[in-house]
Specification:
1199 residues; Purple Acid Phosphatase, chain A, domain 2; seven-stranded mixed β-sheet; 16-stranded antiparallel beta barrel
């Protein structure tokens, strides 16, 4: 630490004052807050040299919800109170979001962050003040002064596992999570000579509760967190929560594995920066300063609700007094950190010394650059050459194009007047951006992708890596060169790519080592003013997808040229370019023909997958509609059209819903007519000569055949597209009118209206045919919207989603039940509902629109295999059928059918289970059916805790059972981790009376061997917070149930059952190899119960080391403790994962009527386990008890 009163710092002038205030969303909006008053005074004093940064959690508890939400007014008041404190001060204002702004990490997070961004920037009217933009992670750059930059990041974006934004921001593009770290690293490299302030919500270091530090009172009096005066001493119990937070923590704690890995990645990036860097955060409600070399970590989160903060662990200063930090930057390179409270300045230190004045290096002349060759000859990727075996499995694809030498020009950026500016987007493609003297941007992208960067760690260095690397051969390295003539002929916008060899040119610094020595593709990047580029439509403005969609939502006069977009998509289909998600388009903005609003036309980009080819065993398997249907190759026939367009489906459904099948057919016919043989000749002529010789004739033939089939293929796709139609309007006012047609269809007309409801013009009109369309979803979005459905044609479900604003539905007695009305209670006035379905809700998510809310139905195969000493080897399997419908997450229905056989006993079983989600409001319908053949058995050694097992013949104690059971159920979620399950059932069971077995001489009533018919009811509550069902390392899984069996025949008795079981899992972190798991349970049976349904112990269910159902009685109690240790992670060619060992100790006992026993049965054992890809686990274990050794081989852990 540098002494404060250093002469040079006193003499230097201030270049910027940065005020850091965090977690300020808890102020009482009805009170004048002195801390905000002081902040305003200091900003007024700083004037244009002042910047204030709100470090997240700007609105407690859930950010800024929809205006129809009951919590909106309070949230708005809290935000406005802070904005009023800084508005009009003359300084710069920046807000970054925190976890509370993201709906307290809840499902409405992205929507609430976007709400806060729109509100903040409209209220302050100071431009781009809420950073990063659009719910993206950043980094967002703000230049504060010469040599001083502020970088804003959204840390909750990374920690969040729910919905979050991807796409293009102001400075960088984020297509995958890893892009954020790469973009941040690139920005720091570009600003390496500058002083940096990086601001985000979550701290890298902390001595507060999120860092695992708690006051002694929390260990002794933990209930004071719930009730202020609950001073009840619970010293051991009170330490449990602080200990858990310090060891593994929740998702918002520094010790949580995802948070910890994020911190480590960020800190590694920070440490590479050569100049002074400050990372400022909030989250913990205190003031903290950690100096680490040239980096200062600051926590400034004590503006409201201050909490305990500890000392030490590298902290120079900590305080829990309400306040905020100020950073003062001087023109001599020095900087100070000041902590302000209402009463006093409690900390003031120079955190970086002045810049040395006598170390300037003599200026050297730039070394002359050797002249480059003008051309280069070589193959794009000679490493893709493959032998016969590799080709058989992974395919020939286009590897001959990759390995054939071509001659291309050498890139000379000086001659072209280009300079590099930043890294490009996407992990798979190596790219940088360049800029010319006029400010036009260009993208320089590698021909070869590296898709292995997106593989999970567990799949690296396996056969999966080779398969994915070979995916590059599926692409055509020069396919993008074919596009301009095809697009020009069909009237579609396009880039003009050229292939170059990039030399090791110092003019490309700091990216010379990254891009030098390889073939790359250069094309102009459409952005801003493109009036000089007719191939982009010569628009004066080009925007990204997020901006375009925002404009459509803002005003219903803004619209997309649907026919132009459809024409573009038809060309995509012709070229088999399936990778057409929304980030693959930019949008040219024009004045529409009626001069009202804005008119958008698409500019496609990144044509990597156009003209792809897939063959070979693995690729042919992958591209089936049952595995990954999006992979459809450029072949004479189009294949599965719904798969080919899967990536583009969300946009197609959003932007082309007004088009009829006839419109699509006319567009396809027009494109077909434009694609003449001479156009194909011109396209193939764009290739290097060696590639023309190699593929020219073949491609010409395939193009002709696809042209002939194009209209039919488009018709097939539109048939799929028309099944479910979305009609999405805007935040302005609209009226939706549904009316039946004479031929049984339904006509929809949407009008633009005034706020009072006066019609102004028709926005949308289309007739829906029930023979093609099953469902139509109408989204009013914002504004005051009206819906009229006096009658509609039959056979189509209409979902009317009002959105925010004062909405109205008008029906009639003829309104059918196929009309569903969604809105918030109070947000929709319903007049004459008829038979329509009312889906009004207090939850504002009822108005949610998600253009990705559409999924394929699917059928998958599921296998069963295992072995144990009771059953021997058993194998089986069956189909898993998934069905999807509107607002059913993660599916509408799931059906699983399994058949399994145990060869030793010639026994088989057939199992069926199903789930149908939200079938009646919040209730799910479930169904379980079991059929067990006569060869099935259950062990029975008699009732009691000390029954004997003295016969070596295992079959002696087996009772053969034939059983049929059907059990429907209703299930309702109580929270994200718990649910209630109510299940009636009917069961018929018969026990075989086999002479010579224990069952025939145990004093059992002869009626037990007749059909036992029961019906009953089971109620179950389940809580499940496990982090994984396959390989759990932390969490709790608790189940408890009560069941009544009512006898329905003379031989059947009535009885009841109570059962509970809880399993807990504990690992210190993801890095530790150890997991401790424990399971405890109890069962009690009431009334006169049959022997085969007693409370039992034995086997994998509860007492390993004994045969299944070894002990039976009225009551059972058991406890299992298991330690699992990972020995090694492995990366084999065919598989990747981890394996380990386990050890366990079990004990338990049963109680039965008339028996007095104090015996507890104990068993112990060991085993090994293996997890493949962390998705499938196998185990083998042996258990030892006083009477036997018990071996089990199977899938999954016992619990």
């Amino acid at each position: 630490m540098v002494p404060l009163l250093q002469a040079s710092a006193q003499q230097a002038s201030i270049v910027q004052r940065v005020f850091l205030i965090g977690d300020s969303g808890g102020f009482d909006p009805d009170l004048d807050e002195p801390l905000l008053t002081m902040l305003r005074e200091k900003l007024l004093d700083a004037d244009s040299l002042g910047t204030v940064v709100f470090l997240g959690d700007n609105i407690y508890q859930r950010g800024l919800p929809d205006s129809a939400d009951a919590g909106f007014q309070l949230a708005e008041a809290r935000l406005r109170q802070q904005l009023d404190a800084v508005k009009g001060t003359g300084g710069r204002v920046v807000l970054v979001p925190g976890n509370h702004d993201w709906d307290h990490s809840g499902p409405n997070g992205l929507a609430n962050v976007l709400n806060q961004e729109r509100y903040t920037e409209a209220y302050l009217d100071q431009g781009n003040t809420f950073l990063p933009d659009g719910g993206l992670p950043g980094p967002s750059l703000v230049e504060l002064a010469e040599g001083l930059d502020l970088i804003a990041i959204d840390t909750e974006w990374w920690l969040r596992t729910g919905q979050k934004a991807f796409g293009e921001g102001e400075h960088y593009e984020t297509r995958e999570e890893g892009d954020f770290l790469a973009n941040l690293s690139d920005l720091l490299r570009r600003r390496d000579d500058n002083r940096l302030i990086i601001v985000g919500h979550h701290p890298m270091r902390s001595n507060g509760p999120h860092g695992g530090r708690f006051p002694l009172t929390k260990h002794i009096f933990p209930l004071t967190d719930l009730w202020e005066n609950a001073w009840v001493p619970l010293p051991l119990i009170g330490s449990a929560y602080p200990l858990a937070v310090s060891i593994s923590g929740g998702k918002q704690d520094l010790s949580h594995p995802r948070y910890r890995s994020y911190r480590q990645a960020l800190m590694r990036i920070f440490e590479r920066h050569e100049e002074h860097l400050v990372y400022a955060s909030g989250h913990d409600h205190s003031l903290q300063h950690f100096p680490v070399g040239t980096i200062d970590y600051i926590v400034s989160g004590s503006s409201t609700r201050p909490k305990y903060v500890g000392k030490g662990r590298g902290a120079e200063f900590t305080s829990s007094i309400p306040g905020f930090f100020e950073l003062v930057y001087y023109n001599d390179g020095s900087s100070r950190l000041i902590a302000h409270t209402v009463e006093d300045t409690i900390y003031d230190a120079v955190i970086h010394p002045p810049r040395p004045t006598d170390t300037a290096l003599p200026r050297t002349e730039e070394e002359p650059v050797s002249p480059f060759e003008t051309s280069y000859s070589g193959a794009a990727a000679p490493e893709l050459e493959a032998g016969p075996l590799r080709k058989a499995f992974l395919g020939q694809a286009h590897r001959d194009a990759w390995t054939t030498p071509v001659t291309v020009p050498v890139l000379n950026v000086r001659e072209l007047g280009l300079r590099p500016t930043q890294r490009g987007g996407g992990q798979q493609t190596l790219s940088i951006r360049l800029e010319d003297a006029s400010g036009n941007e260009y993208a320089l992208r590698s021909l070869a992708k590296d898709p292995t960067k997106t593989l999970p760690l567990e799949l690296q260095d396996t056969v999966a890596r080779d398969i994915v690397l070979d995916q590059v051969a599926i692409l055509h390295p020069y396919g993008a060169l074919l596009v301009p003539p095809l697009a020009e002929a069909t009237g579609v916008y396009h880039a003009k790519p050229r292939v170059y060899f990039v030399p090791d040119d110092p003019a490309l610094a700091p990216y010379t080592e990254v891009v030098g020595g390889r073939m790359m593709m250069l094309e102009e990047r459409p952005d801003d003013d493109m009036s000089h580029a007719p191939h982009f439509g010569a628009p004066e403005e080009v925007v990204g997808a997020a901006k375009m969609y925002s404009e459509l939502l803002e005003d219903n006069d803004h619209r997309v040229d649907a026919r132009f977009f459809a024409r573009t998509r038809v060309l995509d289909m012709f070229m088999a370019d399936w990778d057409r998600h929304e980030d693959q388009f930019r949008w040219a903005e024009f004045d529409p023909p009626d001069d009202n609003g804005k008119w958008f036309r698409p500019i496609p980009r990144d044509r990597d997958w156009a003209f792809n080819r897939m063959n070979g065993l693995f690729p042919n398997l992958v591209q089936t509609r049952w595995i990954e249907p999006k992979f459809q190759e450029f072949a004479p026939r189009y294949g599965f059209m719904a798969g080919l367009n899967r990536q583009g489906l969300p946009q197609d459904r959003r932007l082309t819903s007004e088009l009829t099948p006839e419109d699509w057919t006319a567009i396809a016919d027009s494109v077909t007519a434009a694609l003449t043989d001479s156009v194909f000749d011109a396209a193939i002529a764009q290739w290097p000569e060696s590639i023309q010789t190699l593929h020219g004739e073949e491609f010409h033939r395939i193009m002709r055949e696809r042209r002939a089939r194009l209209t039919r293929a488009v018709r097939t796709y539109t048939g799929f597209l028309d099944r479910t139609v979305d009609v999405v309007m805007s935040d302005k006012h609209e009226e939706f009118v549904l009316a039946p047609t004479e031929n049984g269809g339904t006509e929809l007309t949407v009008y633009k209206t005034t706020k009072e409801g006066t019609r102004r013009k028709v926005l949308y009109q289309r007739t829906f045919d029930p023979g093609r369309t099953q469902e139509v979803r109408l989204y009013g979005m914002g504004g005051n919207d009206r819906f009229q459905a006096h009658d509609v044609g039959r056979g189509i479900r209409f979902h009317l989603i009002g959105g925010t604003g004062d909405d109205e539905f008008r029906g009639s007695p003829n309104t059918p039940y196929s009309v569903y009305i969604y809105d918030t209670i109070g947000g929709m006035v319903i007049e004459e509902p008829g038979m329509s379905r009312n889906r009004l809700s207090t939850n504002p998510t009822v108005n949610r629109y998600d253009r990705t809310d559409f999924r394929f139905n699917s059928v998958l195969a599921v296998a069963m295999i295992g072995a144990n000493e009771d059953d021997g080897l058993f194998v089986g399997g069956g189909p898993l059928i998934m069905r999807h419908r509107f607002r059913k997450e993660p599916f509408a229905a799931r059906h699983r059918i399994r058949a399994a056989s145990a060869a030793r006993f010639e026994a088989f079983q057939i199992l069926y289970d199903a789930e149908m989600l939200k079938l009646w409001g919040a209730w799910d319908l479930t169904m379980d059916v079991e059929i067990h053949s006569p060869g099935s058995f259950r062990n029975f050694f008699g009732l009691g805790n000390e029954t004997v097992n003295n016969r070596p013949n295992r079959e002696f104690y087996q009772a053969r059972i034939t059983e049929g059971r059907i059990q429907p159920g209703l299930r309702r979620a109580l929270s994200p981790t718990s649910y209630l399950w109510i299940r009636p059932f009917a069961q018929n069971l018969r026990v075989s009376s086999d002479p010579g077995r224990f069952i025939s001489q145990a004093g059992i009533s002869p009626s037990s061997f007749r059909d036992q018919l029961h019906a009953g009811l089971e109620a179950q509550i389940v809580f499940d917070s496990r982090d994984s069902r396959v390989l759990p390392r932390r969490g709790l899984h608790w189940r408890t149930s009560a069941t009544w069996h009512e006898g329905l025949s003379n031989e059947s008795r009535s009885y009841g059952r109570l059962w509970t079981q809880a399993s807990t899992y504990f690992s210190r972190s993801d890095d530790t190899p150890f997991t401790f798991a424990t399971r405890a349970g109890a069962e009690h049976v009431t009334g006169t119960f049959p022997f085969w349904d007693a409370a039992t112990l034995g086997g994998e269910d509860n007492l390993r080391g004994f045969s299944s159902t070894r002990f039976a009685g009225r009551t059972s109690l058991y406890h299992n403790l298991e330690a699992r240790a990972r020995v090694k992670r492995f990366a084999g060619y065919l598989a990747n994962g981890q394996w380990g060992v386990l050890g366990f100790v079990d004990h338990g006992r049963v109680w039965t009527d008339g028996e007095s026993s104090r015996v507890w049965h104990r068993a112990a054992g060991l085993g090994a386990w293996m997890s493949l890809f962390d998705a499938l686990t196998f185990r083998a274990r042996v258990g030892f008890s006083e009477e036997q050794r018990h071996v089990v081989i199977g899938s999954g852990f016992a619990f």
